[in-house]
């Protein structure tokens, strides 16, 4: 493990097993320099996955529709993970899922193609596209304020499926994996790895109550798509939101391979997505390149580190291989779709770059000869 000291005295550590720095929000390192995501990966090796599958079958049986009505909801982007869940629920486990999509900020051709390909296999689908004037306003506002143009979108993907579950009387919702345990974060309680509740959604996914977003252009009715339903309504319907990844070993690479075996799954046409070495993850939104680049700006690690750590933890890559890929691709500037993204945010290039620099962590970045560099690159 490398320990690096900043000018202000803060040490930056990289996990001894993967390459995640402790600048990642909520990540925890032990005394040996191993992050909690790597510990979780080791613990998963001792799980009896056959027993977990049996628990899953027992869970879904009471919810299985006898009338042909939808018996579960899948929050669905059209990507490899949610499509794998939808496919397995319908064709392996005999459920009748309703797919619910909260619109990307800027949908792209790859995402549209993948959604259409799965729908054509025989799924019902609801696509929620909120007030675009409000969504654009919030994207610009939160990009400036928080360095994240997708704050409102984060809220929408968490609340819309639950809103739909309440409205349609569908009590079972399957999200993908529990990110806080899988990738390094704060696990509120052991049950959080299986059951998703409002406390975790507000604290980890949204960060605040959307009713706090009201301003001169956003009125109370404008935030309806982003507000979690009242707990009384959730309890009345008996909505239970679960993590599919609790019951089945989770791997983004294996999910990609699985869905490719079931349908024609489109990947990035250039052979890899900007900022990383993969071509199959987070493909549906033109805003994602800037979104992940801002992660690099704020926390000092980008999309390549993110992807590599997940593969290390699943035994699909060595640390040496990960380092090579991270040095090659991490922090690549998001030129693809940049003009469209600037238009969406109502910014020109100078304003965009000023906003990016506004969110640089001075403990992580230094400026030499007019150029920014990481003080402590991944080692």
Provide an overview of this structure.
Helix content is 43%, strand content 10%. It is mainly alpha-helical. Strands 3-4-5 form a three-stranded parallel β-sheet. A three-stranded mixed β-sheet has the order 6-8-7. A hairpin with a 5-residue loop joins strand 1 and strand 2 (11-13). The longest helix is centred in the middle third of the chain and has 18 residues, at 151-168. Mean pLDDT is 93; it is low at 1-9.
Helical content stands at 40-55%
CATH class of the domain at 49-247: Alpha Beta
Strands of the largest sheet, in order across it?
A: 3-4-5
Structural class determined from secondary elements: mainly alpha
CATH architecture of the domain at 49-247: 3-Layer(aba) Sandwich
- The average pLDDT is 93
Write the element-wise H/E pattern from the N-terminal end onward.
Answer: EEHHEHEHEHHEHEHHEHHHHHHHEE
- CATH topology group of the domain at 49-247: Rossmann fold
Rounded to an integer, what's the Rg over CA atoms? 21 Å
The number of helices is 16
The percent range for strand residues is 5-15%
Unreliable segments of 5+ consecutive residues: 1-9
